[in-house]
Amino acid sequence: MRVDYREVGKLPSTDAITVLLLGVLILSAIRGAFLGTRRTAAGLGTMFGRLLLRVLSILAALLLAGWVSPYVRDWADRAVLSMPTGELPQWRTAGYAVLGFVSDFSLLRIGLLFLLIYPICLAILALLGRWRSSADGQPMKKKGKRRKGSAFLDRIGGAGLGLAAGAWRGLLLLALIFVIASIWPDSPLTRHAEKSPVYRYTAQNVFEPAAGELLNKKLPVLTASAAAEWDGILRQKYDVIDRNIPADIGQAAAKIAGTGGEIDRAKELYGWVGTRIQYDYDKVSDYENKGIWHEQTPRDTYDTRRGVCIDYARLYALMARSVGLQVRVVTGLGADGRGGYGPHAWNEVYIPAEERWIELDPTWAAGGDWFDRKDFADTHIKQNVL
């Protein structure tokens, strides 16, 4: 029989999660042996006490966040509605944008409230615990010298308790990995965890039965709701920011729009944006070929006179809003002239006298009249309204 000497002395492959858990156990055992039985037992009690304190603080913070949430939403609504017109400092604009997100997205609002309330609950419960222990506690007796004969047993007992503490710490670590893997199943951590026999056994036999309905029903719904809110935040990110109307752009819009009715003002601005702004093919090329997106504000579009469809639509919305028109940005798909569709953006303006939204595409204005056309829907597929 031939012996492959390259395999002699080679350690079996071990996954990173198992190595980490073994490290936690060994270090906890060494620490327990160093501290001894009594001090390690006291440390275990403290560890469980801290865990209970944090769990109670989390529950209290969640309950309080849910209770306060409607009042915070109403306050944020009033603050956004009272946002002053005209040009604002960047920090104030960002603040109003955050208030808009707090008003519109419940999960985000509760999450932010939880982050603010949790430290307060933790501090209050910790103070109550210390007050209780100081009221009920007895003065500790002085510790006498350990006998030499019992020192070894004391170290052994401490190491055993240290192993128990290490097992508990390892279980908490696995629970954290399980939660992350449940929320982000495609993450690198999840892929590493699935290679660990220890993790797979614990997840299948401990965490999944314990999670039950939460894992199978509620967590996917919660994750989907969070994803939907995040998409909404991305779609709505320009709403408050673009309400910040620079004075010179507002004055220019008033001069361009004139003093006619809603349709007349909307059409004058449509013609100006559609003919004065040039389509930025370099920006499109950088995005399609290099994956680089050059973000720009309506201020940038107005100053450079260049942009792509979303920049046309945002500048038009800002100028229309400055002359009192109710306007919104629409994103979706636009015909590419070759029988297909591509990502596109345009605008809608509300006409109170006719009780309807008219559609217009300032990006396409240079190539034809795309203001309130009857066949507008033949070339534009609406998906989202910003």
From TrEMBL:
<feature type="domain" description="Transglutaminase-like">
    <location>
        <begin position="301"/>
        <end position="364"/>
    </location>
</feature>
<keyword id="KW-0812">Transmembrane</keyword>
<feature type="transmembrane region" description="Helical">
    <location>
        <begin position="110"/>
        <end position="131"/>
    </location>
</feature>
<dbReference type="Pfam" id="PF01841">
    <property type="entry name" value="Transglut_core"/>
</dbReference>
<keyword id="KW-1133">Transmembrane helix</keyword>
<dbReference type="InterPro" id="IPR038765">
    <property type="entry name" value="Papain-like_cys_pep_sf"/>
</dbReference>
<protein>
    <submittedName>
        <fullName>Transglutaminase domain-containing protein</fullName>
    </submittedName>
</protein>
<dbReference type="InterPro" id="IPR002931">
    <property type="entry name" value="Transglutaminase-like"/>
</dbReference>
<feature type="transmembrane region" description="Helical">
    <location>
        <begin position="152"/>
        <end position="184"/>
    </location>
</feature>
<keyword id="KW-0472">Membrane</keyword>
<feature type="transmembrane region" description="Helical">
    <location>
        <begin position="48"/>
        <end position="68"/>
    </location>
</feature>
<feature type="transmembrane region" description="Helical">
    <location>
        <begin position="16"/>
        <end position="36"/>
    </location>
</feature>
